[in-house]
Amino acid sequence: MEHQLDSKKRDVPEEATLEVNNIGGIDETTVSFRQGVTVLSGRNATNRTSLLQAIMAALGSNQVSLKADAAEGSATLEFGDETYRRTLERRNGTIVTDGEPYLEDPELADLFAFLLESNEARQAVARGDDLRELIMRPVDTAAIQSEIEQHEQRKRDLDDQLAELDDLEGRLPDLEAKRTRVTDEIETLEAELEAAQEKLEETNVDVEERREERSELEAKLDDVRETRSEIEHTRDRIETERASIEALEEERDGVEDKLESLSTGDETEISRLEAEIETLQADKADLSEEISQLQSTIQFNEQLLEEPDSFLAETTETDDGPLTDQLLDESETVTCWTCGSSVARDQIETTIEQLRTARQERLEKRSEISADLNDRRETLSSINENRTAYQQTQRRLESIDSEIDRRSDRIEALTEERETLADEIDALEAEIEDLETEEYSGVLDQHKEVNQLEFELERKERTREEIEAEIAEIEARLDDREGLKARREDVTDELTTLRTRIDQIEANAVEAFNEHMENLLETLQYENLDRIWIDRTTREVREGRRKVSKSSFDLKIVRSTDDGAAYEDTIDHLSESEREVTGLVFALAGYLVHDVYETVPVMLLDSLEAIDAERIATLVEYFESYVPYLVVALLEEDAQAVEGGHGVITDI
Fold first, then answer.
1. Which of 141, 250, 542, 639 could cross-link 41 (Cys pair, CB 3.0–4.6 Å)?
2. What pLDDT digit, counting tens, does each position of 605-616 carry?
């Protein structure tokens, strides 16, 4: 799993400039960044987090706050030749955003690139949440399943076509044998006809004296021959129509059986499902809005604790000194940004924890609603598909009945035509008998024999032409078989890719986390911490009306005692520093697996104080290898540990 930085620098501008107005605790500022690492250095309450929020705003995130005393704010990012601008406006107690940010959909970046303290990937590791759900959230599994079903149908169609070609190929030997047999019969008839014609010519009759009678007789014989040919042709057409009717009746039996297995759907159930889907969609939208508002409130309060002076309209002098100094001077209270009263820090921290719990509950509720929604959509889709199939089958049945009626009428008309032709033959033969004399009786028999042989010969030749036409059509269709096989192979490969796409994303995520976690633990050298990895397991679960395979990501931790004995531990027993590193590595795995650098070439790091300066420097250096732009907010003493020619911003 290689994701080297050189491959990400393509088409990424060398420099970016950000203008900020009234975001977080910032009144107004302009800063520039270059590719690589940019360190925001300073003590607490110096608007470093606010600047990161401003970057997020310009890139498209909604997890930003407007300055407490401002009605509107903005963030403008000049990135190469392009300019991206985002505005924030306070309306009726909520923040409304507008403009044209860098990202249309910030979900991936919010999860795996904007790694502030409240970042969901970091928090999920710290809380022991479902890591698999989070890593797979950006994947549209419903769309993948729909694509799988479409490819499965295409493969079935191609299989049917190839099976039909196999049947046709199996008919070729019989057709070729039939053609050989008919050809032999034609050769025999040709020989018999030639002999009969020679015999007729040798017959010793006074043709000159009987020319007129013979001419009339021969005309009548020709008429009989032509009429017999017509009646034979009519008989063949009748047989063809009857064969078609038999095939249609057999198809009708199958269609009727299929129709009995289908239904038109219960209108009441359909209406109920549609109403439930609409209600669930509305509930999901409401929950999403609540989650977004809770996240904004959590971030706002976290920033209040970190940078309390950024929420004051101006520095206020008191008898004991500037108010900001009071807030920062080891005070256990903070001025509430809503009512202005003094509130204990631990009370705000408790409130933040309650808000996080409420947000998690709503996330879980939204997942439950999503599952119910998918189940009802699947049921409604199944009913609608069943109804469509019923209507199509009903139309096919009606079409078959109409075709049977049409062909029956055609048989009736052909039968009448055949009877008329038979009457004509009877009349012609009667006329021939009147013309026949004792002298011509032998000639008449010879004419009849030649006439009959010519008729049989024409019929056999027509049969051979039909056989040869059928053979040519089959051979032409068989020429397409290799193309059909190639298409089926392509569809099969695409199906395999689709079916394994979700599995591959999960496997890549686990591989990325385990690889980077191993690399960093070796470098960071946490005492007694031997290994942290994700163990991916699969189990059968019921989803709606079917069983599906579902994966789970279990975070495994192995420590060792002083005497070297290894034992398994839990996330709860990790130090704060170890948890933070684990969360950051998990976010990095998501960043790489989902190719987030192709969506946004920026990663933001904040709230690393739980990690010591030397390890922070190692982390920054490691992350720098995978991100075109890495912006890190650090305390002054931590910033000094980050070596190299990095950009440093101290004045915000």
1. 639
2. 999 999 999 999
